[in-house]
Write a structure and sequence with these properties.
Layout (H helix, E strand, L loop, with lengths): L1 H15 L6 H7 L8 E2 L5 E5 L4 H6 L6 H12 L8 E4 L13 H18 L3 E5 L1 H10 L9 H4 L4 E3 L6 E6 L9 H11 L1 H6 L1
Parallel strand pairs: 2-3, 2-4, 4-6
Antiparallel strand pairs: 1-3, 5-6
Helix pairs in contact: 1-5, 4-8
The structure holds uracil and iron/sulfur cluster.
The site of iron/sulfur cluster has 14 residues, from helix 2 and helix 5.
């Protein structure tokens, strides 16, 4: 227990000081915070998004803006409390104008996420959006099963990489549902799978 706290603190401190990619300059210029991640350190379920948006970069908290509101509603719809899960992102600093993560940024930043996963050891990782999906499915040795997110959203994949028994589930990114009720319905249907997992 204490070890988990200490190791996560170490990751956090390293991220707070990180200058490994050019997003750090953006962060400093705008007086943004990096968003390390937050939630239950013994979480069975971990959510991995893409990168902080504006609201997140201003506060240092993951999914606290419009996409976060959708995520909160989705969690609510299946009776999961935010404090039961852990929420992190592939990139810890905000890309300008919320553009896609660049390969160089993912390469430099993803070791933090990998360590968070190894420390928390969740049973299930919910991959929010295609960037998180592509990166983590490859990491978990599932590269042969990667398809477009419109094909494999809501499906369970088992992996034994990183010496953990982990199930990953790709989901559409909650941001797609901000102005699109149909996508919200798809996400709600997909989230139902999590109910069987928490039982
Ligand atoms: N979108 C993400 O991918 N992550 C956040 O933390 C917020 C919005
Ligand atoms: Fe470091 Fe990641 Fe921020 Fe780049 S995005 S500066 S690698 S913490």
């Amino acid at each position: 227990m204490k070890r988990i706290e200490e190791e996560l603190k170490k990751v956090k401190n390293e991220v707070l000081d990180c200058k490994k990619c050019s997003l750090y300059k953006e962060r400093v210029k705008n007086r943004f915070y990096p968003v390390v991640g937050e939630g239950n350190h013994q979480a069975k379920i971990m959510f991995v998004g893409e990168a902080p948006g504006l609201q997140e970069a201003k506060t240092g908290r993951p999914f606290c803006g419009a996409a976060g509101k959708v995520l909160d509603e989705l969690l609510d719809s299946v009776g999961i409390k935010r404090k039961e899960v852990y929420i992190a992102n592939l990139l810890k600093c905000r890309p300008p104008e919320n553009r896609d993560p660049q390969p160089e940024e993912t390469k430099n930043c993803s070791p933090y996420l990998e360590r968070q996963i190894e420390i928390i050891k969740p049973r299930v990782i919910c991959l929010l959006g295609r960037h998180s999906m592509n990166f983590l499915m490859e990491k978990f040795g599932l590269e042969n099963q990667i398809e477009g997110i419109s094909k494999i959203h809501g499906r369970l994949f088992e992996s034994k990489n990183l010496s953990l028994n982990i199930t990953v589930i790709p989901f559409y990114h909650p941001a797609v549902a901000i102005y699109n009720p149909n996508m919200k319905k798809v996400l709600e249907e997909d989230f139902k799978i999590l109910k069987t997992i928490i039982k």
